[in-house]
Amino acid sequence: MSQLCEGRVVIITGAARGIGRAHALAYAREGAKVVVNDLGGAADGTGSSATPAEEVVEEIRALGGEATANGDSVADWDGAGRLVKTAIDTFGRLDVVVNNAGFLRDRMFVSTSEQEWDAVINVHLKGHFCVSRHACEYWRGESKAGHPVDARIINTSSGAGLQGSVGQSTYSAAKGGIASLTLVQAAELGRYGVTANAIAPAARTRMTEAVFADDMAAPSDGSFDEAAPENISPLVVWLGSTESRDVTGRVFEVKGGMIGVSDGWRDGPTIDKGARWEPDEVGSAVADLLQKAPAPQKVFGT
Q1: Buried b (16+ CB within 10 A) or exposed e, 165-176
Q2: What angle do CA 65, 68, 70 make, to 5 degrees?
């Protein structure tokens, strides 16, 4: 019986713990060769250790799979380049990038420091850019050389990025940017044989346990654990397979046994005067538009 991702080479960032670790093991079970990337830092992004990534590699090898560890920072341009090179040098190719790495520095907006803003934007939004950009340079080169490319980018957004979350302005901004980045990647990269999709997962991780401890607790009665990070990975594995080649530019929400497609921003009601508006005319026009438009989803925490 063939495996869904047999022979495919996958980079997973932030793959030593939580959702990333679950992705790495799930891909290995489906026959993929996995590059386990992780700095091994704390939940707030500080510190580093090679041990957590190496432990996941050993788990994969114990399953009979192939894997290698990488400790480069995804937010470092040269480090991201080394990460992509690790996959190609070790396994001879690269087929899938799963951008998962991230951490939290929760603050109310008026309390957020420049340092906290830069740190979160760097690892989430810049990290997605750096790794994908180096991977796409490789894939474009392969395509132009006449070699078949059937590649995937799978980004990690969040419900916070899709509708905002109180106390997480920086994280929400980064995750919203990732959703938009995914749309542009899908539009631009199809010509090279590359698809781009994103997920907005909800699961128990080091980042969510502290904030949603009660909601994310594992059931003690042996019933289905809706918050288990392993629930997220089947969708991500399928998106990395050759079966998903016709799916691109989508953001999937996933939690427990639920998979949904986010509707995103769409053009809504309009009023066209056919001439320049006067300032005192705008109020009634906006009131009319809002009357016709659906109410926005509530921001998390409100």
Answers
A1: bebbbbbbbbbb
A2: 150
Specify whether the CB–CB gap between 27 and 7 falls below 8 A: no
pLDDT at 213 over 70: no
Q: Which of 143, 172, 175, 244 is catalytic?
A: 175
Q: Among this protein's residues, is 192 annotated catalytic?
A: no
Name the phi and psi angles at 241, rounded to 5: -85, 170
Query: Tokens at residue 11, please?
Result: 């980079």
C-alpha distance across the termini of the chain, in Å: 49
Q: Give this prediction's pTM.
A: 0.91
Q: pLDDT digits over 24-56, tens only? A: 999 999 999 999 999 875 555 455 556 899 999
pLDDT tens track for 279-298: 999 999 999 999 999 998 89
Architecture of the structural domain at 9-261: 3-Layer(aba) Sandwich (3.40)
Buried b (16+ CB within 10 A) or exposed e, 75-110: beeebbbebbebbeebbebbbbbbbbbbbbbbbeee
Element housing 117 (H / E):
helix 114-121
From the list 132, 143, 157, 158, the catalytic residue is: 158
Please confirm, yes or no, whether 2 is among the known catalytic residues: no
| Nearest residue to 212 via CA among 253, 174, 158, 262 | 158
**Adjacent-strand bridge partners of 33:** 9, 66
Closest CA to 240 of 35, 66, 32, 96: 96
Q: Which of 33, 171, 241, 244 is catalytic?
A: 171
Domain boundaries, the chain: 9-261
- What are the CA-CA distances from residue 107 to residues 102, 104, 257 (Å)? 16, 9, 31
Residue 171 among the catalytic residues? yes
What's the pLDDT at 222? Answer: 81
